[in-house]
Design brief:
heterodimer; A: six-stranded mixed sheet; two-stranded antiparallel sheet; 29% helix; B: 244 residues; mainly alpha; 9 helices
Chain lengths: 210, 244
């Protein structure tokens, strides 16, 4: 898969396959193309060449997007709405019942601040709310885009527990970081990007045959 | 073409997957959410009222407003005020999604992008109409329109005219969102395209204020533009709802 922004190739012929239940790190310096790759995998950007498949379905298909969750730098929540209102909004976008919101909040221990506006939350609480949003539709694949940067140790530990439970259900995690991250000890493999090129595949990450 | 990227995780069963989100449920959720956000912040509402009221008051002092003047140029004055107020609302349609990238949350969801654009358009239309209905009595007080004015039909023209502005404006608001000169680009893109509709709404309103002339022709033209702008905007929703 290749992605151009104008004439500039942000990603060049990147190709890989992730096994179920794996936690894979996406490594590389700033500007390596990690966020671009994750945005393409999430369906927010289109690849200029090549394609992404989630469980055999192209990412342009709504059923594939239903299988993917993204936890990004920003929460993707509206700051003027409460956490509960934001999750109810996302429940509608994913075709879920309103009752799923409560279980989504419980999953990340966010019930205590569910009725607070996102703008009033600390960074750690906001990221927990964002994780509740990303997991609300029980995705098969979770993409983390520098999700643990600027979080305190305690919040990172809590989020790690949630992610370990998520992986134990046979679900896949791809986590980008520009350094060895707080998830390094859990990782089954790694992908290393540099200036848009895939430099290295480690561990469980498989090549895809053309 | 390079080989496909895939994540070969265990295939999810049909029972695990929720049904695809319904268009009307997503549309209704977007409309209610945007109205709730506006009622909480009242940012656009206050700015719209302020701009439009300012224009009405300035014109009323500048032109020594009376029935004779209103029957000649009242339609144009009214739509100048509503157009400026509308631009404030349209500018904010997608802008409020930027701080925490909530638009990205929509883009990665399986929900229809057409439903998002339709929901945003409907919320803008309702907001603009609410402001216009508040300002219409003030316009009548300041400009003292002739007794022949047909107010019921004027409200119908307001609905059709505002629909045309909201439909085309919401589209261009999305298109200009990630550009550097967004605030400048929106009126530059919208107004030339909306000129035929603006002419129709001004002419129809003018004829209804002085109680003379052919209204049906302008109204039909306006409805035609409504259909055209709505269809084109929604058909191109996938193109326009994009990331930076």
């Amino acid at each position: 898969m290749t992605r151009y922004f104008g004439d500039w190739p942000a990603l060049r012929q990147v190709s890989f396959r992730l096994p179920a239940g794996a936690l894979v790190l996406l490594l590389g310096p700033n500007g390596a193309g990690k966020s671009t790759l994750l945005h393409i995998l999430a369906g927010a950007l289109r690849a200029s060449e090549g394609e992404v498949k989630i469980e055999g379905l192209p990412i342009g298909d709504g059923r594939a997007r239903q299988r993917v969750g993204l936890l990004a730098h920003r929460s993707l929540l509206h700051p003027d709405l409460t956490v509960r209102e934001n999750l109810a909004h996302y429940a509608a976008l994913y075709g879920l019942q309103g009752s799923e919101v409560t279980s989504g909040l419980d999953r990340v221990h966010a019930a205590a601040f569910a009725d607070m506006a996102v703008a009033e939350l600390s960074q750690g609480m906001r990221q927990k709310a964002a994780l509740a949003r990303a997991l609300l539709h029980s995705p098969r694949v979770l993409l983390l885009d520098e999700a643990f940067s600027s979080l305190d140790h305690r919040t990172v530990e809590e989020l790690r527990e949630v992610l370990q439970a998520f992986r134990a259900e046979g679900r896949t995690i791809l986590a980008s970081t520009h350094t060895e991250s707080q998830l390094s000890d859990l990782a089954d493999g790694a992908l290393e990007l540099d200036r848009g090129r895939l430099q290295q595949r480690r561990g469980c990450v498989e090549a895809v045959l053309a | 073409m390079s080989a496909p990227i895939s994540t070969a995780s265990r295939p999810g069963t049909a029972a695990e997957r929720p049904p695809a989100p319904k268009f009307w449920r997503v549309w209704a959720r977007i409309v209610l959410r945007d109205i709730k956000l506006e009622l909480r912040s009242r940012e656009a509402l206050q700015a719209m009222l302020f701009y439009a009221l300012l224009i009405i008051i300035i014109f009323s002092f500048a032109f020594e407003a009376g029935a004779e003047l209103t029957s000649r140029v009242g339609g144009a004055l009214l739509w100048v005020a509503f157009l400026f107020a509308g631009l404030v609302a349209l500018d904010r349609v997608f802008l409020r999604e930027l701080p925490e990238a909530s638009l990205l949350g929509f883009q990665i969801s399986p929900a229809s992008r057409t439903a998002l654009l339709a929901g945003k358009f409907t919320a803008s239309f309702l907001l603009m109409i609410a402001v216009e209905l508040l300002l219409l009595p003030l316009f009548a007080i300041f400009f003292n329109p002739p007794p022949e004015a047909r107010w019921g039909m004027i409200i119908l023209v307001l609905l059709a005219g505002t629909w045309a502005l909201a439909a085309s404006g919401t589209y261009f608001s999305a298109l200009s969102l990630h550009t550097r000169y967004r605030a400048l680009l929106l009126p530059l893109l919208l107004l030339p395209l909306a000129i035929p509709a603006i002419v129709a709404m001004v002419q129809a309103t003018q004829h209804l204020l002085d109680g003379q002339g052919e209204v049906a022709y302008w109204l039909r033209l306006l409805v035609g533009f409504d259909i055209l702008y709505t269809t084109l905007g929604l058909a191109l929703a996938d193109v326009v709802i994009q990331t930076e």
